[in-house]
Amino acid sequence: MPVEVKLSDLVRMNLVDAFEAEGEPPKQIAKRLTKAGIIDHFNFKNSIYTLKRKANGDCRYLDLKTRLCTIYENRPNTCRNHPRIGPRPGYCAYRSRPAKLLITE
């Protein structure tokens, strides 16, 4: 699945520093990250960046052997909230059946 991130996620992931995020236009940041091979697409209207994936479609931060996130502590909100939000809440393509979510208030 493509991972869509916001500028704040890129700062948390240490791909953009906070000073750059405040001063540079998002389009310029997207241009730099595209050139560096970090993002694949930038949605200007919503200011959403799509991270570039490995050739096999995996997230660039997924360890090939352990299948664990290599930036878990700094992972983007998309990953932090999966599968609670999205087009099919509670559904994860990598599980045999939809996840049952326990929501406590």
TrEMBL record:
GO terms (BP aspect): methylation
Keywords of this protein's UniProt record, alphabetized?
Answer: Cell projection, Cilium, Flagellum, Methyltransferase, Transferase
InterPro entries this protein is in?
Puta_zinc/iron-chelating_dom
The domain of life is Bacteria
The terms under GO molecular function for this entry are:
methyltransferase activity
Name the chain's protein.
Flagellin N-methylase
What's the source species' lineage? Answer: Bacteria, Pseudomonadati, Pseudomonadota, Betaproteobacteria, Neisseriales
